[in-house]
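pasting for the record
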Amino acid sequence: MDEQNMGNGQNNQTSQYSNYQDNTANVPYQPPVDSGDPDKPNTLQIVGLICGIAGIVFGCCTGYVGIILGIIGLICAIMGNKQGKTGVGTGGLVCSIIAIVLSVIILIVSLIFGAALIAAMQEAGYYY
């Protein structure tokens, strides 16, 4: 009797696994789909950020160089953001705008102080 119960127990176990079908045996390997990684910054955005930062640095010293680098950075950041927006592109856009504004302010202030210095030197007789 015990042998019959054991036999039935083994039959129940084999019948439990006999209903399983392995449908993956004949399926060929399929590589994962590449989504293109839209969050990856492109080259124009990186160039825009670099030109914007350099424009801020050089804008404090000379206004002309800061304006030129700011405009180049602004154009690159806008063109890069058309391909896909990332934080790098937004940072390049903001830095380029800051570089242009800062350079214009420095340029205006230096022209005003330069004109005042020339007027003071002419009055003192040092500059003709």
